[in-house]
Amino acid sequence: MRTPEQRFWKKVNREGNCWVWTGAVTADGYGNFRVSGHNLRAHRFSYALLHGPIPDGLNILHACDNRLCVRPNHLCAGTQKENIADAIARDRMFKLPGWYSEDPSRRKSGEKSPNSKLTDRAVEELRREYATEFVSQRTLAKKYGVSQSNVSLIVRRVTRDLVTDGRICR
């Protein structure tokens, strides 16, 4: 009897840059792999083989943008927010009138977005203060009128820079 890992790799075509899942596929286009009576996304199983259990609440993102790819070095863990930002950066996200445009030159990002609470200058200043003045995130959150979690995302460059900086998985 074969192990789940052996069964898994039998269903992977390793020719080419992406390693393509050739087994069952879900309605939304992701590989589906059954282990111990449970259906798993094939890319999540592949990631877990190399990196161990996926922490609760994290998604597995594709650097190659290929839902059937299970090549471990094309996969990275990220939050739902990072996954959405990555989808926006790659033009895979739904379009919101006035915020997201088919024409990249017309997209409203940064301070031009109606969802933005901070100007680009305020973001730069917040990052500078955090890096050079050893101010706590909670103090900066109060000063700039945003939550501590938003400050954390800003100083780690998870928000504000994703659309311009590109992809999450590098």
Q: Main sheet?
A: 2 strands, antiparallel
As for the number of domains, it is: 2
Output mean pLDDT: 81
> Level of helix content?
25-40%
- Low-confidence region ranges: 161-167
Q: How large a portion of the residues is in β-strands, by DSSP E?
A: 5-15%
Strand order of the largest sheet: 1-2
Shape: elongated
Give an overview of the whole structure:
With 170 residues, this protein is of the alpha+beta class. It has two domains: 1-78, no CATH class; 102-170, Arc Repressor Mutant, subunit A, CATH 1.10.10. 35% of the residues lie in helices and 12% in strands. The chain has seven helices and six strands, in the order αββββαββααααα. A two-stranded antiparallel sheet has the order 1-2. A two-stranded antiparallel sheet has the order 3-4. A two-stranded antiparallel sheet has the order 5-6. It is elongated, with a radius of gyration of 20 Å. The relative contact order is 0.12. Mean pLDDT is 81; it is low at 161-167.
Layout of helices and strands:
Blueprint: H1 4-10, E1 12-13, E2 20-21, E3 32-35, E4 38-41, H2 42-51, E5 59-62, E6 75-78, H3 80-89, H4 120-132, H5 137-144, H6 148-155, H7 162-165
Antiparallel strand pairs: 1-2, 3-4, 5-6
Keywords for this entry:
Arc Repressor Mutant, subunit A, 35% helix, alpha+beta, single chain, 170 residues, 6 strands, two-stranded antiparallel ribbon, elongated
Concise account of the structure shown:
With 170 residues, the chain is of the alpha+beta class. The chain is 35% helix and 12% strand. The chain contains seven helices and six strands; from the N terminus they run αββββαββααααα.
